[in-house]
Amino acid sequence: MSDPQVVQVRDDKKEAVHQVLERIKAQNIQFVDFRIVDLLGRQHHVTVPASEVDERTFEMGVAFDGSSLTGYRSIEESDMVMVPDPTSAFVDPFVEAPTLSLVCNIYTPEGDPYTRDPRNIARKAEAYLKETGIATTAYFGPEAEFFLFDNVQYGNSMKGAFYFIDSEEAAWNTGEPGLGYKVRVKGGYFPVAPTDTMADIRNEMCQLLERCGIRVERHHHEVATAGQGEINFRFDTLTRAADNLLLFKYIVRNVAKKHGKTATFMPKPIVGDNGSGMHTHQSLFNGDTPLFYEKGGYANLSQLALYYIGGILKHAPALTALTNPSTNSFKRLVPGYEAPVNLVFSKGNRSAAIRVPVAAVSPKAARIEFRTPDPTCNPYLAFAAMLLAGLDGIRNRIDPTEHGFGPIDKNLYELSDEEKKSIKSVPASLDEALDALEEDHAFLLAGDVFTKDVIETWIALKREEARSVNRTTHPKEYELYYDL
Question: What are the entry keywords (predicted)?
């Protein structure tokens, strides 16, 4: 007899496929767009006329060349298949012809899930969570900050290297002709118009997010000058939250382009002001029961939640290789810019790596906020890694209070030198983070969620990025050394 759970899954997929095909007819969809993501987190797509899409498409998938995507197969074994997830459908608001987009999972020609497919890794992490019996669902709520610039120029060659950015609201433009109301350095948190020039653009982004099925909670200008913003959308299950983050970035970038601006999720595009992080809220549920809440505990956290925190903080140096995977990431992770470099936890404290929200929190809203990550990460890999670190903490009963991880409920940047000695910090560079990942990755192999091949491939790709930056002569070096 067939497993009834398997039958139910197949029935659910069949119904979802039916709904997508009916939607194509009802909304006169002309094209269907199939999306995948490479190992580094960049999206790619192929478009098919809607007349060519039927039930078989959701079984057989669409063939593509895996050797052309970063981190995938070599040219002699390049044939791969993308199979659409029918529950991920949304109508693309930026394409003139009515187009339905679908997120896909990647398979080998033999029909096996591809081990380097980031979305497959996220799905395996969710399956492993259920296998542990600890919880049934992990919820993630990323808060990806970004900048909207009016101009960006950059170049690297034998002749020279440079970058140039500009923004109508930047503090450095007070000396230019204009109407005033520039955003001061570190003065951009919640200003009203006319200082905040981006409200209408963020409104439009929110409207499109809602139209594409992502529930928006709020938006606002962020701390930095020159157009820093934040839009918070509703938490979701691990894989779906990663799907939503990539769609969020797609919408932000394209709305910005429509308005003659350019959006970037670089962690530190501006020297001397706050960077862009991706504070990531996390919680575990068993069915409808929240597992992170216990009235009377520290910040009303359960012991299980504390163990989860302990796992993340213990493995944080290795995690940063996945949650902060760019050389630019570590220009944000420096003291003095609200950057969470200290590996401690605290309630309501934004200078700690993990903050426990305490304002307007119900039992079901009990959660932790890991503040170190930034939006250059591949969210499928980053969320899966965070979950595995937390589960390792639960399995091994890693109590953060017994391992020197706090809690510390005061401004960590104002501690004495003696107090600072006992506090561990995140790595100071991408190379250091990769060193940590090489030494500490056994927790990622649990449940075969990550494979050694994926970790080795990731490290090799990121080592080459770091080498390319280290080999490039920097304009600052001319200022420091040209006349020596």
Answer: ATP-binding, Cytoplasm, Ligase, Magnesium, Metal-binding, Nucleotide-binding, Phosphoprotein
Q: Among this protein's residues, is 418 annotated catalytic?
A: no
Catalytic annotation, pick one of 219, 253, 279, 441 = 279
For 134, residues 6+ apart whose C-beta sits below 8 A from its C-beta are 284, 291, 304, 391, 394, 395
**473: which 2 tokens?**
């002569």
What is the residue-averaged pLDDT of the chain? 93
Could you confirm whether 371 is annotated as catalytic? Answer: yes
- Convert the pLDDT of each residue in 273-330 to its tens digit: 999 999 999 999 999 999 999 998 999 999 999 999 999 999 999 999 999 999 999 9
Bridge pairing between strands 99-107 and 31-37: parallel
Average pLDDT of the segment spanning 341-359 = 86
143 classed as catalytic? yes
Taking phi first (over 0 means left), then psi (-120 to 50 degrees means alpha), and beta for anything else, what does residue 117 get?
A: beta
Distance of alpha carbon 404 from alpha carbon 427, whole angstroms: 17
**Residue found under tokens 């100071």:** 428
The per-residue DSSP string of 138-169 comes to: EEEEEEEEEEEESEEEEEESSS-EEEEEE-TT
pLDDT of residue 362 exceeding 90, the answer is no
Structure tokens at 463: 């080592």
Contact 28, 98 (CB under 8 A): yes
Residue 128 three-state SS: helix
- Buried-state track 419-442, b at ≥16 Cβ within 10 A, e below 16: eeeebbebbebbbbbbbbbeebbe
Q: Which of 12, 52, 59, 65 is catalytic?
A: 65
Q: Which domains does the chain have, with CATH numbers?
A: 26-114 (3.10.20.70), 137-481 (3.30.590.10)
pTM: predicted TM-score of the whole model, two decimal places: 0.94
CA distances in angstroms from 311 to 96, 130, 343, 421, 459, listed in the order given: 47, 18, 11, 21, 22
**What pLDDT, on a 0 to 100 scale, did the predictor assign at position 75?**
64
403 carries an active-site annotation: no
Q: Is the pLDDT of residue 411 over 80?
A: no
Selected catalytic residue, list 371, 374, 431, 441: 371
